[in-house]
Specification:
Elements (H helix, E strand, L loop, with lengths): L4 H9 L2 H11 L6 E2 H8 L3 H13 L3 E6 L2 E6 L6 H10 L1 H11 L8 E5 L1 H4 L8 E7 L6 H12 L3 E7 H10 L2 H8 L2 E5 L2 H7 L3 H4 L9
Parallel strand pairs: 5-6
Antiparallel strand pairs: 1-3, 2-3, 4-5, 4-7
Helix pairs in contact: 2-6, 6-8
Length: 216
């Protein structure tokens, strides 16, 4: 279970499979998904996904659309609580899942990527931008496209700070304010983890200290 307050809200309100289905449908309300597509995207069991889709359709939250031999599901924008549900998922777990999905095609270029700032700390408001830090061997040129797509899907701004590993390590060594600020904030890792970040911010003399010391 997440320790981030925003993420915990979504986890407490909805079970895992229902949360994942609603997140996907709410944040992609302009398109429909067929059952096998959702199973593959969510990596959940067929029975669990079909059960939840059946319940959501019965409640009028999603609608069934038959296309040939496939049954598609789409969020029902005419549902009485559509706007409220979309608002919930734009503030909680849906944002992280939407961002993970958008970054997946460029994952090989990212290295370490994490959300920081107000959202990661759990005190973001409805219009607070999502702040993403990316540290890779080289800069990813497609990040502006991801930022635009994120806004189109969620209505939230995505502010991206990008460094090469060398730039970030140099900034840490020199005590640059922007690097220290990011390091001091709460984080939600999209790719990589805290251990990977620790390696980047370990000075080489510290990393190899002890290896060259003589045994007592």
């Amino acid at each position: 279970m997440s320790t981030n307050p925003n993420e915990l809200l979504g986890e407490c309100l909805f079970g895992k499979v229902r949360r994942q289905i609603l997140s996907t449908l709410m944040l992609h309300s302009d398109r429909s998904f067929y059952v096998l597509e959702l199973i593959r995207l969510l990596q959940c069991g067929r029975g669990a996904v079909q059960r939840e889709l059946g319940r959501l359709a019965k409640a009028g939250i999603v609608i069934r659309i038959r296309r040939g031999n496939q049954v598609h599901f789409k969020v029902n924008r005419d549902c009485l609580i559509y706007r409220e549900l979309r608002s919930i998922f734009s503030k909680t777990t849906g944002l992280v899942e939407a961002l993970e999905s958008l970054l997946e095609p460029v994952s090989s270029e990212l290295g370490i990527a994490f959300i920081h700032g107000e959202y990661a700390a759990g005190n973001a408001s409805d219009d607070t931008p999502i702040r993403l830090a990316v540290i890779g061997e080289s800069r990813c040129g497609r990040l502006p496209e991801c930022s635009k797509a994120f806004f189109d899907q969620t209505g939230r701004k995505l502010l991206i700070s990008s460094w090469t590993t060398r730039e970030f390590r140099r900034g840490f060594t020199l005590g640059e304010a922007s690097v220290n600020k990011v390091l001091g904030e709460d984080k939600i890792f999209i790719q990589g983890n805290r251990s990977d970040l620790d390696v980047v911010t370990t000075r080489q003399e510290d990393l190899f200290s002890g290896l060259l010391r003589e045994n007592p």
